[in-house]
Each structure stands twice: as structure tokens, then as C-alpha cells.
Amino acid sequence: MEDKFALITGTSSGLGFEMAQFLLEEGYTVIGVSRRGTPLDHPQFIDILCDIKDEASVEEMYELIAEHTEKLHMIVLNAGIFEMSPLVETSTKEFTDHLMTNVVGAFHVLKHSNDFLEEDETHIVSISSSASKKGLANISAFSASKFALNGMIESLREEWAHLGVRFSTLMPGAIATPIWDEGDMELARDQMMSTDDFMEVFQMVTRSPKHVQFPEIVFLHKKGIVK
Hints:
CATH superfamily: NAD(P)-binding Rossmann-like Domain
CATH topology: Rossmann fold
Strand order of the largest sheet: 3-2-1-4-5-6-7-8
Structural class: alpha/beta
CATH architecture: 3-Layer(aba) Sandwich
Number of domains: 1
Oligomer: single chain
Strand content: 15-25%
Number of helices: 5
Number of strands: 8
């Protein structure tokens, strides 16, 4: 049986960490990418430090990946930042940081993945947000970045259609992860989806046969609704 390799960005904690653990259990060799490293100890886990905002850093990342594999069977675009503030209190730097991490970072990862795509095999999973479908108050920077991410993925789906690359975009609402412990962000935990709820949907998507397509999955009321 062919060894399968998955690249996941943002594996230092939260969803990225959980998705890495699951894919390791599924038999993948997982390449985890983050700025500060991942506290995951597994013989099939490869930890790479990389700032995806920096294109040169992403090119170096792929040079390291090439030492282990020529193909990536799954790419999970998970790395991102999220901050809450009214538009008039959002600095240009904060707004730009969202675009650089959530959109430009994903652009760098996808742009330089071309040589690692396996025709009719590679599955690209993007962790977007329900805020990419409907903008909400006090998260204009985040919402703008996720709208942009979705547009880029839709365009790339057309560009790479001849390669048979499969795209799945997951759009959850707030999930109870450590991100909510940072800064001044507050939201009642009972209003959030649990990590387990999210992982049920992620498992369904990643275990699905190649001919089953999930272009968009929008999460509503703490449960995953397939659209």
C-alpha cells in the first residue's frame, strides 16, 4: 500500500493539532507546519517551522518536504488569525495581518505545491468560516480575509480541474479552541461548536471516496450542515 502524506498548516494547537492527530491515526505521514512548533510526538509526524506569510520560508518548507516525499495526497489550509474589533478601531496593520496570514499565506502554500500534486488524488481542504458567507459585526478584517480565501479556492478549482485535484472548503462558526483564550475576545462556550463536532465533519470529508465531492460545508447551530 502506498504511503500517504498530508501537509497541515497551523498545527501548534487547536484544530490543526487535532487534525494532525486524526490523520496520523488514519495512517498518513503528517507534515505539520507552524511558526513555533508542534508538541506532537509520533514517528510519522514531521514538524517544520515556517512563517507562511514569507514566500521564501514556504519555498524552504517545500525543500524540506522533498527530502521525505515527492507527492502530497492531502493539503489542509488551516493556519489563520482571528481578532475582534469594530472597523473604526481596527488598525491597518491588524487588517493587513489578517490578509497576509489567512489569504496570502494560503496563496504561498498553494502556489508552491504544484510539483507535489498527485493527479486525481490530491485533496485540498480549506478551513474557512461561516463568516465568509455572511459578514458579522466586529470581525470585518477576519471576514474579508475568508471571503477572499474562498474566492481564491474557487478560482483554483477551475485552474486545476484538469489535474483532478479535489477541493473541500469547511466553513464553521466559532469553535471552542485556545484562540478564545487570547486577548480580549469573549464568547460563551455554550454558543460554540465543540472540537469533536468539527472533527466529525472533517473525518467524513477526508474518509470519503474520491468521487464524492464536498465543495462547501457550512456549519450552523454548532452542527455541520452539508451544502
